[in-house]
Design brief:
mainly alpha; 80% helix
Length: 120
C-alpha cells in the first residue's frame, strides 16, 4: 500500500511539474507574440511569429501571421493603385494643359493681329 501511495504521489508531482513547465512555456510564447505584434504595429510587416506545430499557441500564431501577410498584400495593392492613380492624374493634367496652352497662344496671336478698332 505504501508503494502505491508513493507512486501516486510521484505521478502527481511529475504532473504538476510538467503542467508548470507547459504554463511557463506558453506564457513565454505569448510574451514573444506580444513583442512581435508590437513590432508589427510599429510598421515592421516582415515580422512573423514563430511556433512549433505541436505548441498550444501555434494555431493563434499561424492565424496572426496570415492576417499580417494579408494586410501586407492589401497594402502593396493599395500603393500600386495609388501610384497608378498619380500617373493617370499627371497624364490627364498634361493632356488637358497642352491644348489649353495652344489655344491661349492662338488667341493671343489673333488679338495682336486684329486691327486696333476691332479689339475691345
Amino acid at each position: 500500500m505504501e508503494i502505491f501511495c508513493f507512486l501516486f504521489c510521484t505521478v502527481a508531482l511529475l504532473s504538476v511539474v510538467y503542467s508548470a513547465a507547459v504554463v511557463r512555456k506558453t506564457k513565454t510564447q505569448i510574451s514573444e507574440m506580444l513583442d512581435a505584434l508590437a513590432d508589427i504595429k510599429n510598421g515592421n510587416g516582415n515580422r512573423r511569429i514563430l511556433a512549433n506545430t505541436h505548441d498550444i499557441v501555434s494555431p493563434l500564431a499561424y492565424e496572426i501571421n496570415n492576417i499580417v501577410l494579408s494586410y501586407e498584400n492589401q497594402l502593396s495593392i493599395f500603393h500600386q493603385t495609388e501610384e497608378a492613380n498619380k500617373r493617370l492624374m499627371t497624364s490627364l493634367s498634361h493632356d488637358v494643359r497642352t491644348p489649353l496652352t495652344t489655344l491661349i497662344g492662338y488667341l493671343d496671336a489673333a488679338y495682336k493681329i486684329l486691327p486696333k478698332r476691332m479689339a475691345p
